[in-house]
Design a protein that fits this description.
Length: 79
């Protein structure tokens, strides 16, 4: 999907796919160990979150950008 890859959302996706709990708990640190694949962006001090966001270094060519899930035209269902 195109929801911004914040740590909580990624953890949820990993759990949905039955990934082992130790990996789910440490995936941000694991991602940071592979800077050739991932950019781990820590939140700014003035932000209202303490979650990291994890991006691919190189986005797939077909990727159409992130969707704001709080926007009125959000295409994702709340379920």
């Amino acid at each position: 999907d195109r929801i911004k890859p914040m740590a909580t959302y990624v953890k949820g996706r990993l759990k949905e796919r039955s990934i082992a709990e130790p990996i789910v708990k440490s995936f941000v640190e694991l991602s940071a160990q592979h800077p050739d694949l991932f950019i781990v962006q820590q939140p700014a001090p003035e932000s209202h979150t303490d979650e990291a966001t994890i991006y691919f270094v190189k986005e797939p060519e077909w990727f159409k950008g992130w969707v704001d899930i709080d926007a009125p035209d959000d295409p994702y269902d709340e379920k």
